[in-house]
């Protein structure tokens, strides 16, 4: 049996938060699951962490939250993206907040 690249339980929690939002699409990307709003990536599930597009302006403040760290790909820090895991997303209210941040940011961008 193949090892799952992302936590399906966390992915389902994210789906439950988003509900039937118009313009939302899922794509498997980078070994995880990406959630896009009008073609712009908002959040993703990478392993057992939530990848959140917070934007450059909110990046430093986002890092002050418990369970949050910078998102890196191939050793490069992806400015404007964070990973929230563990206690940072354990409670539904925290997961809802981070999904909301990513969806709001993606919604502020022109549709692709």
Explain what this protein looks like in three dimensions.
There is one protein chain. The chain has 112 residues and is α+β, with helices and mostly antiparallel strands. It has 3 helices and 6 strands, in the order αββββαββα. The protein has one domain: Aspartate Aminotransferase, domain 1, CATH 3.90.1150. The protein has a 6-stranded antiparallel sheet with strand order 1-2-3-4-6-5. Helix 1 crosses helix 3.
Tally of strands: 6
CATH architecture: Alpha-Beta Complex
Name of the top-level CATH class: Alpha Beta
Going by helix content, strand content and strand pairing, the class is alpha+beta
**Terminus-to-terminus distance:** 36 Å
The total tally of domains equals 1
Brief synopsis:
30% of the residues lie in helices and 35% in strands.
Secondary structure: elements and pairs:
Elements: H1 8-18, E1 24-29, E2 32-37, E3 40-46, E4 49-53, H2 56-62, E5 68-73, E6 76-84, H3 92-107
Antiparallel strand pairs: 1-2, 2-3, 3-4, 4-6, 5-6
Helix pairs in contact: 1-3
Question: What attributes characterize this protein structure?
Answer:
alpha+beta; single chain; Aspartate Aminotransferase, domain 1; 6 strands
